[in-house]
Write a structure and sequence with these properties.
The complex is a heterodimer. Chain A is of the alpha+beta class. Chain A has helices at 14-24, 37-42, 77-82, 84-89, 91-96, 103-108, 111-117, 123-131, 148-151, 228-232, 241-253, 265-289, 293-299; strands at 7-10, 28-31, 50-53, 63-65, 68-72, 134-139, 142-147, 152-154, 157-158, 165-172, 178-185, 195-203, 209-217, 224-225. Chain A is globular and about 60 Å long. Classes of the chains: A alpha+beta, B alpha+beta. The complex binds flavin-adenine dinucleotide (FAD) and FE2/S2 (inorganic) cluster (FES) (2 copies).
């Protein structure tokens, strides 16, 4: 199958992109990595009249500004996977992106595109929630910053306004005594997740938790954070298995995943509880070590 | 811009200049035509194959600036200014005197292709061009990948025949030989029956 005909414009700045989108109106679409949009166009689920290709804009290499990791919207999945700066300062993203698609998807797909696409199974979306990322967007009336928890509205739907584009994603860098965890259940590596969980934990000097986050992919019509009550029960704890088990159970009790050909809703919920417990376990353990595998791996090779 | 017709006879085609396998080619195509269709239908490169059109199967794999991508998910308009390599252009990437010599006689096999033949890493061959290009990109990047790394990198190239074991063997043998010396990087001629000449 092939896409319907469309007009094509390649832009070299976000400003140009916004103008082209504003002119194109409802039938205009942004093209980034094309790894979600183009399959939908080939199936004719999406029939744009104008494609605005962002690729010539490119992305600066990931960089750290103060306590923020700054990632261009067009940062490819491969860059998240392989760049030492990302592995060191945000190992959760570097780990989670291993689960995204296949090699060709990672060579083309972008962070901005993933977040804007808002697939409910998006690993990167779940991480954006767990990390408290901010999405910088530019539109006809200027630029604004959207906290991740305000971005995802529903199935393939975000709070982006018409003609707004994601220009950057800002992620707090990993703090001292911060640990992270990611766990996914998938039928075959490279498929979309049946369910996934991402967690972060910041410990006090005495080893009790000061701050805990937990989020899920694949268990709702969008990526979701665990309800506050569930994670709050872990603050002040040292993360023993019983505490993690009951927090995970509390977190999934609030979910009502739907059933599809891959898994029933009830199965997804049970899997999500296991994944939550594992993600939290890794996060507590890594925080206690004050280190992490990916950061270790990156230690010898500074930024390529 | 123009009212040229493309190969399917439809109007609204524009002129694009692509670099494919080291050569500059001009095509008339509507901007909505996929790179896959242009390579396969317009340029006659039968090794770039339609399998799914959704980025899943890998039979349309080509290298764009040396990286494996799904040609079914790129539009022709996006390909200008980039170096595109399909399987039939891979031998020229070996880039040594042997390659040029063999090319003058018209037939050449890249050492990774030879390794696939030696290891029996194909049956129907439908997946093979994509498999070889993806594996080639991996070896170029990491040198000697582990079996796990090969499996992870090739999981997006589906093979319905071989069961993958011999494909992994072929990649490992090529990567090993490429790492210990230059021999395996030479391109060797093949006989008309496709067997590897000694
Ligand atoms: C075989 C296969 C397997 C995959 N597996 C996974 C997986 O396991 N997990 C996963 O998360 N994803 C998966 N994906 C999707 C992949 O991660 C995509 O790259 C991603 O979802 C979209 O990013 P993109 O850059 O390709 O965006 P595109 O496909 O170009 O665009 C997607 C949508 O976002 C919009 N958009 C893109 N960029 C911007 C921007 N900067 N500002 C505003 N809007 C924008 C587009 O208009 C479009 O609506 C898979 C894809 C394939 C083909
Ligand atoms: S045809 Fe392109 S990946 Fe299947
Ligand atoms: S050899 Fe037949 S699909 Fe791989």
């Amino acid at each position: 199958m092939a896409s319907v005909d469309f007009d094509y414009v390649a832009v070299s700045s976000y400003q140009e992109a916004v103008e082209a989108l504003a002119r194109g109106g409802e039938e205009a679409k942004v093209l980034a990595g094309g790894q979600s949009l183009v399959p939908m166009m080939n199936l004719r689920l999406v029939r744009p009249e104008l494609l605005v290709d962002l690729n010539p804009i490119g992305a600066a290499p990931p960089s750290v500004n103060g306590s923020t990791l700054v990632l261009g919207g067009l940062t490819r999945h491969r860059t998240l996977l392989e760049t030492a700066t990302v592995r060191r300062h945000c190992p959760l993203l570097a780990e989670a992106v291993r689960y995204v698609g296949n090699a060709r998807v990672r060579n083309r797909g972008t962070l901005g595109g993933s977040l804007a696409h808002a697939d409910p199974t998006s690993e990167l979306g779940a991480c954006a929630l767990a990390l408290g990322a901010e999405i910088v967007v530019q539109g006809p009336s200027g630029s604004r910053t959207i906290p991740a928890h305000e971005l995802f509205v529903s199935y393939l739907t975000t709070s982006l306004m018409p003609a707004e584009v994601v220009t950057d994603v800002r992620v707090p860098v990993k703090a001292r005594h911060e640990g992270w965890g990611f766990a996914e259940m998938v039928r075959r590596t490279s498929d979309l997740a049946i369910a996934a969980a991402a967690a972060t934990v910041v410990l006090e000097e005495d080893g009790t938790a000061r701050h805990v986050t937990l989020s899920f992919a694949g268990v709702a019509e969008r990526v979701v954070s665990a309800e506050d009550d569930a994670v709050r029960s872990l603050v002040g704890s040292t993360g023993d298995d019983r505490a993690l088990g009951s927090a995970a159970a509390g977190a999934v009790a609030a979910l009502s995943p739907s059933s599809d050909v891959h898994a029933s809703g009830e199965y997804r919920r049970r899997v999500a509880a296991v994944l939550a417990r594992r993600a939290l376990r890794s996060a507590f353990d890594r925080a206690a070590e004050g280190t992490s595998d990916a950061a270790d791996g990156a230690a010898d090779g500074e930024e390529a | 811009m123009t009212t040229d017709r493309d190969v399917t006879g439809r109007e609204g085609a524009e002129a694009y200049t692509l670099r494919v396998n080291g050569r500059e080619v001009r095509v008339a195509a509507r901007p909505s035509r996929s790179l896959l269709d242009v390579l396969h239908d317009d340029l006659g490169l039968g090794e770039v194959r339609y399998g799914c059109g959704e980025g899943v199967c890998g039979t349309c794999t080509v290298l764009v600036d040396g990286e494996a991508v799904s040609a079914c998910l790129m539009f022709v308009a996006q390909a200008e200014g980039h170096e595109i390599t399909t399987l039939s252009g891979l031998a020229s990437l070996a880039g040594d005197a042997a390659a040029t010599e063999v090319h003058a006689r018209g037939r050449a096999l890249h050492p990774l292709q030879q390794s696939f033949l030696r290891n029996g890493a194909l049956q129907c061959g439908f997946c093979t061009p994509g498999m070889i290009l993806a594996a080639h990109a991996l070896v170029e990047r990491v040198g000697q990948p582990t079996r796990e790394e090969v499996a992870y990198e090739l999981v997006g190239n589906l093979c319905r025949c071989t069961g993958y074991a011999k494909i992994f063997d072929a990649v490992a043998e090529y990567a090993g030989a490429a790492a210990d010396g230059t021999r395996a990087r030479h391109v060797e001629p093949v006989s008309d029956h496709g067997s590897v000449a000694s």
